[in-house]
Design goal:
With 377 residues, the chain is an alpha+beta fold. It contains 13 helices and 18 strands. The model is unreliable at 1-15 (pLDDT under 50).
Amino acid sequence: MANNTNLGAAKAAKNDEFYTQYADIQKEINAYLEYNPDTFRGKVVLLPCDDPEWSNFTRFFAQNFERLGLKRLISTSYAVESKKYKNYQPTLFETESPLFDIDKTRIKGKIFELTHDTNQNGCIDIDDIEWHYLDDDGDFRSKEVCKLRDEADIIVTNPPFSLFREFLTWIIEAKKEFLILGNFNAIHYKEVFPLIRDNKIWTGNKRFGGGMDMIMPKGTFDPSKVKKYHTDERGNIIQNIMGVIWFTNLDHGRRHEPLQLMTTKDNLRFSPHKNVKEKGYPHYENYDAIDVPFTDAIPSDYEGEMGVPTTFIDKYCPEQFIIIGCAEGDSGKELGLKPFDRELKKLNPSLRDGQLFYMENGMPIKPYSRIIIRKKQ
């Protein structure tokens, strides 16, 4: 996985809120509909943390309300003063409403709801949205939004990445279905990995590679600190953010597609990876498993446990493999990975307790982040 340079720079600048493009939402949602056309039918969908005036999540679900068969759409936003950036201009949608209050709009969150054809034009769409101010600032942890969470069937949003752990816990404790964006590194979080291991949540339909082009909130973009960006037809600044992936517990077809793999013998002869052909599959010194440095090099005929790259999660088929654990830090210690002795650390100072290693030419080698898996019997 590529280094999350842009994401790190955004966090350093105290900004971890990015707007998702309409086409990316549409493509992802369509994958769930292809697997099950009734995924959203008769459901209440909540879009918290969402800035409805600008949000493509609100636009997509409102414009597709009837096609999806929704029962109710709810979208909530944070108050301006609760955000990390304050460069805010009310939209005409807000200012032309008789509900608009210049004082409230900065300190109160807003709720936008869509349930029926309010303008009597024969269809339910974005023009039928009704809104009002919340009593609080719209934080997802507030009593108001928690109540909306409890009323919802499915939660969909792009939450601030700095709050991802807490936000996911907020969803899981309510036992809701969801589709949210997050950082690839969240896979390793202690709040996240056990859910992935136990097949309670998984990654979305979009492949990991390439990151995602995101819309930068106005007033937060500094072109002097970013190498690659472009402007769309609406004048929005679009920046590629590496490491952005979908997390969900909604089923989609791709996660049930088994990997097409070669046998150990064929990998050693025909693998496109030079080090696999030359070194084979080293056995770890501190755990009974072999090291597999590439997902496509997993040997189809190996019955024991294997350490594979974290990016395996992107191609994980629960009918084909079992995830045993994560060989990182405390999770690795829980797997029983023994601490390194001083002599080994002298040979390789990068060794850390709770991580795997194997020996090569008398030197301890620590592979990059590994997940332990086994072929399903």
